[in-house]
């Protein structure tokens, strides 16, 4: 099968190691693309909800596929999220073409793109982490129930539904949280002079132009930024792609949504320092042992 070449691939909220993750579908998607750069924007391995009795072969194959990219000389940036937050104490870890960071700035055709997961804006993460974890388990149960409901609906010839989306859309506080999250991210990016701000966390895939919430000076227009969210592989099965000067929001087995064109030579803003830490977590032992292949590869220098 001929692969689609893309300049930049952004994935987030895979939640590998949970029942809700669509590992097989994700693996099929990764087999279809050949990216020039990969950004994994948080909640890739779900350490919060990880259970040794549940780690499907497809989830490990996804990990191996991502590491294969690094082995081929493709920079792979793993940015930490809240479900894999324990990796933050190993920020700036590097092994070959695999980089571990909390946030990232890339230059795209003279424009700056700011990548981070976004849980820093989540009040429950800052003050009620136990409640957030409890909610995570509840969400996982809802997703499992949703899969069963959709299986029944499919056999009956009915359209599939998303229970969590219906709940989110029906609860005003959830709608308000999503709107506030996007506006805060946009305002910060505008203040810091970025052209693109790319997040995950809220499982709401989108590409849109956003204005600053601050009132502009008389006679001036409010500054804008392009806000992007890569969604997730629990419900939406989405990824952000950049190629031939165009951002696209790819939905698995669906059409592409596109926005205005830009050209892409990607350059890292600052060099990465190699930190010779031990393996960060037992769960990731195989991940980093496999990654040593890319460290020994002649293509491993970014």
Q: What are the salient characteristics of this protein?
A:
302 residues; alpha/beta; Purple Acid Phosphatase, chain A, domain 2; 8-stranded mixed sheet; 14 strands; globular; disordered C terminus
Summarize the structure in words.
- The chain is of the alpha/beta class.
- The protein has a single domain (4-296), classed as Purple Acid Phosphatase, chain A, domain 2, CATH 3.60.21.10.
- Helix content is 32%, strand content 25%.
- The protein has helices spanning 23-32, 57-71, 123-127, 129-155, 163-170, 172-191, 285-296; strands at 4-11, 33-41, 76-79, 94-95, 98-101, 103-108, 111-116, 196-199, 206-211, 224-229, 238-243, 246-251, 256-261, 266-268.
- The chain has an 8-stranded mixed sheet with strand order 4-5-3-2-1-11-12-13. It has a 6-stranded mixed sheet with strand order 9-10-8-7-6-14, with helices on one face.
- The longest helix is centred in the middle third of the chain and has 27 residues, at 129-155.
- It is globular and about 60 Å long.
- The chain starts with a strand and ends in a 6-residue tail after the last helix.
- Residues 123-135, 254-263, 269-281 and 290-302 have low confidence and may be disordered.
Largest sheet: 8 strands, mixed
| Tally of separate helices | 7
CATH architecture verdict = 4-Layer Sandwich
* Name of the CATH superfamily: Metallo-dependent phosphatases
CATH fold-level assignment:
Purple Acid Phosphatase, chain A, domain 2
What is the rounded distance between the termini?
28 Å
Order of helices and strands: EHEHEEEEEHHHHEEEEEEEH
* Overall pLDDT score: 78
How many domains is the backbone divided into?
A: 1
Rg, please? 19 Å
How many DSSP E strands? Answer: 14
Approximately how much beta-strand content do the residues carry?
A: 25-35%
What's the CATH C level? Alpha Beta
Fraction in helix: 25-40%
Trace the largest sheet across and list its strands: 4-5-3-2-1-11-12-13
Structural class: alpha/beta
> What is the approximate shape?
globular
